[in-house]
Design goal:
Length: about 150
């Protein structure tokens, strides 16, 4: 997938190869740009980068690479929707075999507009609660129907 900046879309590898070979054949920057439907400054940038690095590929992008893939993120969302009462940091298995931290789980869930908090289990009814509910139901049973 080509890198997309806010102002420009990266040039495909095929276009870069074409631009460099045309330049080596002696064509002008403007002629190459017209043929590839790119600006003259874009063609100059491609050829200068090729002359610097002797490669057609993009330079590495800044920033730390993601530890989880899109498939891993979908798997996490599925796990959360399936059971909301478990802590997921130790249960979420990444496809690359690495472990995930609780902060990574929290960030991925927030990105998918989900809560990272664990749902609280409801308390069980005690025998006193059960008895009180039965007496209330018997009392309500004797009430007259409202019209």
């Amino acid at each position: 997938m080509p890198y997309e900046n806010r102002n420009r879309i990266s040039v495909t590898l095929e276009d870069r190869i074409k631009a460099v070979t045309m330049s080596q054949q002696g064509k002008s920057f403007a002629a190459i740009g017209r043929e590839l439907n790119r600006s003259k400054s874009c063609i100059i940038r491609i050829i200068d980068r090729y002359n610097e690095t002797n490669s057609y590929k993009d330079r590495p992008r800044p920033g730390r690479p993601r530890i989880s893939t899109a498939k891993d993120d979908r798997n996490l969302v599925r796990l959360v929707k399936k059971n909301r009462t478990h802590v997921l940091a130790n249960q979420w298995k990444l496809s690359n075999g690495k472990t995930s931290s609780s902060s990574l789980v929290r960030k991925r869930l927030l990105a998918n507009k989900l809560e990272w908090k664990v749902a609280v289990k409801k308390p069980r009814l005690s025998t006193k609660h059960i008895k009180d509910r039965k007496t209330f139901c018997k009392m309500v049973k004797s009430w007259p129907l409202s019209k």
